[in-house]
Amino acid sequence: MNNFSYLNPVKIAFGKGSISKLPELLPERKKIMMLYGAGSIKNNGVYDKVMAGLSSCNFIEFAGIEPNPLYETCMKAVEAAKKNGTEFILAVGGGSVLDAAKFIAAAIEFAGTDPWDILASDAPVRSALPLGTILTLPATGSEMNMTAVISRASTCEKLPFSNPLVYPVFSILDPETTYSLSVRQSVNGVVDALAHVTEQYITSGSGTPLQDRLCESIISTLIEEAPKILSDPKDYEARANIMWCATNALNGWCSCGCVQDWATHMIGHELTAFYGLDHAQSLAVVMPELWRINMHSKESKLAQFARRVFNVKEKSDSRAARAAIAKTEDFFHSLGMKTKLSDYGINGEEAAGKVYERFMGRGDVALGEDGDINAAKAREILLKC
Ligand code: NZQ
Ligand code: ZN
After folding, report:
1. CB atoms within 10 A of CB 17
2. Model confidence over 285-303: pLDDT tens digits?
3. Atom in ligand 1 nearest the alpha carbon of residue 44
4. How far is CA 159 from its chain centroid?
5. Which of 46, 222, 355, 371 is deepest in the core (most CB within 10 A)?
6. Under-50 pLDDT residues of the chain
7. Ligand 1 pocket, Cβ-based, cut-off 6 angstroms
8. Which of 103, 137, 146, 242 to mutate to test the pocket of ligand 1 (most atoms within 8 A of CB)?
């Protein structure tokens, strides 16, 4: 196990009715900007509950954060926040709204000329406004981590940044807010959470039995609970379990002291940037082929995954590992999640070429836990997708 020091300081209020905790979690006498998306919160009653919690606060609203939040929109929010003297951001929605809040919080305080540099060239974030979240879509783990992913419409780019200053101060997780999710978004959430775990688990790493078992228990729970939310969207227990899985999948605990992959995500982000695939759709396409191509380094973990999670009895590691990939694909298909570029009408050769050029344009890349996925290998993977 590698050395690690890790502290996740997010205060979590979880459960039915937890939005009522908002007044006690908010800082006193601060000017607040409440941020949300296209309006799902107005249709499912979350907006009214938040308004009740904000009734004695000085706040403005900023609506219209889109899925795969845009830098351009975030910069409008930065302008509005500066004008109003905002001191605290409250994000209400899915991962996109939460990520936008993190970027806006850092951009408002950014000392350089263009906050895009935080994403594009790792410009230092030395301070950020504090933020809190009310999550309505379990998927990204953004509610309990320090990462945000922002897209730029003008250049078709999608880039992440991470900084401890953008950890939420608190996150409210009421599983009842997720009853209104469409099947597509519910499934996206399950697949994204599963992918977060596998990016930390299906690696060439070894010697981390506790972290491995954390990963296996999250994936097993997702596999057990996902069909329940599809057959009964108001199954509270299942919604709550999925929500807690998604938070734990990317709050840092699974990967403490472990090597991590994240190549599926980095290639997937390009597919979203170029073709508009939902984040989870891009992952379900890339992951199986990336595993097949990097079988030489991932075989042992894939075989363990097969035996422990899918109960595969196969003695040969190589056959067990292949079974793990097939069973992961079967699980995705059972949820209605597609796994091929052609399922979305995307030409694989064109996509492979575009992603190759994009990565070469950045001076090539060295993705994956061993840094062995460069632009050429990403192209090879996509040609098989
Ligand atoms: O905009 P509204 O009206 O709110 O509708 C949203 C949106 O259309 C809707 N929705 C959210 N909660 C709902 C709901 N509809 C009905 N009922 C509810 N309770 O769902 C749609 C998608 O929302 P979005 O926030 O985009 O989805 P998700 O949570 O999957 O977030 C995806 C974004 O997060 C990034 C992705 O790249 C993508 O940009 N990620 C962030 C990460 C992080 N911060 O650590 C890691 C992830 O790997 C991921 O990259
Ligand atoms: Zn993800």
Report:
1. 10
2. 999 999 999 999 999 999 9
3. 17
4. 12
5. 355
6. none
7. 37-41, 44, 67-68, 93-97, 99, 136-137, 139-142, 145, 147-149, 177-178, 180-181, 185, 188, 192, 250, 265, 279
8. 137
Which ligand gives the minimal distance to the CA of 188? Answer: 1
Q: Rounded to the nearest whole angstrom, what is the distance from the C-alpha of residue 196 to the centroid of ligand 2?
A: 6
User: What's the pLDDT score for residue 73?
Assistant: 98
* 323 Cα to the center of ligand 2, angstroms: 23
**Other CB atoms within 10 A of residue 267 CB:** 30
Distances (CA, A) of 84 to 31, 66, 80, 113, 327: 8, 22, 6, 21, 52
Instruction: Return the pLDDT at 7.
Output: 65
Q: Which residues of 349-368 are buried (b: 16+ CB within 10 A; e: fewer)?
A: eebbebbbebbeeeeebebb
Q: How many Å lie between the centroid of ligand 2 and the Cα of residue 350?
A: 24
pTM (two decimals): 0.97
Cβ count near 24 (within 10 Å): 9
Tokens 């908010």 — which residue? 26
CB 324 within 8 A of CB 310: yes
